[in-house]
Automatic annotation (TrEMBL):
InterPro entries documented for this protein: EF-hand-dom_pair (IPR011992), EF_Hand_1_Ca_BS (IPR018247), EF_hand_dom (IPR002048), S-100_dom (IPR034325), S100_Ca-bd_sub (IPR013787)
Protein name listed in UniProt: EF-hand domain-containing protein
Taxonomy, superkingdom: Eukaryota
Record PROSITE patterns: EF_HAND_1, EF_HAND_2
Keyword annotations: Calcium, Metal-binding
Domain EF-hand per the UniProt entry, residue ranges: 58-88
Length: 108
């Protein structure tokens, strides 16, 4: 049986996390620099569409996710970051739908 698109996406997220975590220091956690590289390399349009390209956004995201304050992001903390990004993008998606609907129906 083949993986579904969602299963494949989840596997790719896990693989990506470990690929970037292994770049320096602890191979099971992301440093701030590793997180910046991961997001910049893998979701550039996503970050730009959200207006999140500025370095301070990633730093704030890192600090909010680092629950144990060890200056590293473990996989569980990384899931918090993914949740925040998906939530922000979901809101953007609804704004785009609304704008498209309003344009189509001459509401602007």
């Amino acid at each position: 049986m083949m993986d579904t698109p969602v299963e494949e996406s989840l596997f790719q997220i896990i693989h990506c996390y470990h690929e970037y975590a292994a770049r320096e220091g602890d191979v099971e956690t992301l440093s701030l620099e590793e997180l910046k590289a991961l997001l910049t390399d893998n979701v550039p349009r996503f970050m730009e569409a959200l207006g999140r390209k500025e370095p301070y956004y990633i730093t704030q995201l890192f600090q909010a996710a680092d629950k144990n304050r060890d200056n590293q992001i473990c996989f569980e903390e990384f899931l918090y970051i993914l949740g925040k990004l998906v939530k922000d993008y979901h809101l953007q998606y609804h704004r785009q739908l609304c704008a498209h609907y309003c344009t189509q129906h001459s509401l602007y």
